[in-house]
Amino acid sequence: MKIVILDGYTVSHGDLSWNGLKEFGELTVYDRTPKDPETILSRIGDAEVVLENKVNMSRKVIEGSPNLKYIGELATGYNNVDIDAAREKGIVVTNIPAYSTASVAQLTIALLLEICHHTAHHNDLVHQGEWTSCADSMFYDHSYPLIELAGKTLGIIGFGQIGQSVARIARTMGMNVLAASRTVREEGKALAEYVTPDELFAHADVISLHCPLFPETKNLINAENIAKMKDGVIILNTSRGPLINEADLAEALKSGKVYAAGVDVVSEEPMRADNPLLSAPNCFITPHMAWMPTEARKRLINIAVNNLRAFLSGTPVNNVAG
């Protein structure tokens, strides 16, 4: 059996091994694969198994890969795979669920705490000599008010495993939690009050996005919905970039309607130099790194190996093609 990984560096980053897949057949690993279908097809060749993270597995690619029987998405989201084309050809498509729950929740809170305390900025000031030359025993830059989160309301849109993990951390800091979700879960009721999106917009001091990207959630954060929010709201997105209309958010940051934003994802990645969030005030941007701690990536690779093992044994798991 021939196994091809099309963009292995995204997950391995050179410090983790793919050797666990070698027990199943001949393994070829490409660090990166260009976007054009011809190159993708040439690299797949006659392989039966393809694993990828962000490569576009389009209908053209799927139909042009005659031996392909299995696509292993090395991520939770799989919108880069034409599921209909795969289903028509009887190709199993698996994803990697729940491998980065703790890591994504951790970065979500890290962005929020950075907004509240501007720790990086104050660290820079200290290293620039502002504290050693200060007349007082302590100081902070009054350009950035420090914010206490206890007693404030966090609104979470999308209340699956990551949203609930964020809620648990927020509650330990004394925050009240509201949740808007398509599915109401009993375990969620213990962590948050379920409300409609409009109720969440109206009452939340902080809004954190943890919902999937569907047609109905694309541009969820837009000028119309921002107008429903509290003045000075904080918006966080560690889910999918297109959940936010970035031009509308940038304008709201400039006007002060939105006090600050923290995002780990943007609409087009790598981020374009003309993305309006780059020039927006009080916008904290990290480069889609929430899922990347070593522990989470090891977990991802282990699940990918187990997904393929289950498929080869005739009992596929995490099959998103149905």
Structure write-up:
This protein is of the alpha/beta class. The chain has two domains: 2-99 and 294-312, NAD(P)-binding Rossmann-like Domain (Rossmann fold, 3-Layer(aba) Sandwich), CATH 3.40.50; 101-285, NAD(P)-binding Rossmann-like Domain (Rossmann fold). Helix content is 33%, strand content 15%. The protein is built from twelve helices and twelve strands. It has helices at 9-12, 37-44, 59-63, 83-88, 101-117, 119-127, 161-172, 186-189, 197-203, 223-226, 246-255, 294-312, and strands at 2-5, 26-29, 49-52, 70-73, 92-94, 153-157, 176-180, 193-194, 206-209, 233-237, 258-263, 283-285. Strands 8-7-6-9-10-11-12 form a seven-stranded parallel beta sheet, sandwiched between helices. Helix 3 links the parallel strand 3 (49-52) and strand 4 (70-73). Helix 5 (101-117) crosses helix 7. It is globular and about 70 Å long. 38% of the residues are buried. The model has no long low-confidence stretch (mean pLDDT 97).
